[in-house]
Amino acid sequence: MAHTHVPDQFTCRAISTGPGQLLIKLNVTGLCYSDIHYMLEDLPLPRMNDYGVRSPGHEGAGVVRIGSGVTDWKIGDRARIVPTWDTCMSCKLCSSDMECHCAQAIPTGLMPPGTYQQYIVSPARYTSRILDGVDDFAAGPIMRCGSIMFRALASSMGLRVIGIDAEKEQEALCLQLGCEAFIDITQSKDLAADARQITDGKGAHGVFVTASSPAAYVSTNAISSSLILFLSAP
């Protein structure tokens, strides 16, 4: 049962699962800036209201309560929600392990209700199991922490990674995760020049952008003109 409360109005609705779906009781949810964009309606995307959605969110973790027609999950399993709620599973992208780019992909928290509520229905095939030893507070947001995973993977692949962010806490995190160096945007007068200095004049071969600030988009072309990968929207 889910409830919605607005001034002078209180409504309840029953939540049921369809074939191949799970009902998950959420323990935690993260806040992604895309959720704010969905609510502000400041991006060229469909509106949440067009689908009757009041709850954004795609970074949840909790416990499976019901699985209709699902054999590889059981009640009590710990699960986390992923940003893509479902895809067509029939196009070329879906058949080549690139279903996140499917033209018919359904974003969690935009078209179906998201994780800003107590319970959520999620397709079993797009629900990720939480490993033992990983708590819910870490498991929920990690599905969107591309920058953290990329730093760790890039370092393990032998790439030289430079972290660019602000404040000492972020510097410590970047270096802990394997970055070779860190550039503080509040101290740097020229990000591209600082990157060249760190790399013996070569500069960056590519830039991986997860910040939603418009300034981040402007500065990336100066840092690298060869490969720029964006994981967010300004």
From TrEMBL:
InterPro entries: ADH-like_C, ADH-like_N, GroES-like_sf, NAD(P)-bd_dom_sf. GO terms for cellular component: cytoplasm. The keyword Metal-binding applies. Residues 152-217 form the Alcohol dehydrogenase-like C-terminal domain. Transmembrane segments: none annotated. Its cofactor is Zn(2+). Pfam families: ADH_N (PF08240), ADH_zinc_N (PF00107). Keywords: Metal-binding, Oxidoreductase, Zinc. One of its GO terms (molecular function) is alcohol dehydrogenase (NAD+) activity. The keyword Chloroplast does not apply. Residues 18-129 form the Alcohol dehydrogenase-like N-terminal domain. Belongs to the zinc-containing alcohol dehydrogenase family. This is Alcohol dehydrogenase N-terminal domain-containing protein. It comes from Aspergillus wentii DTO 134E9.
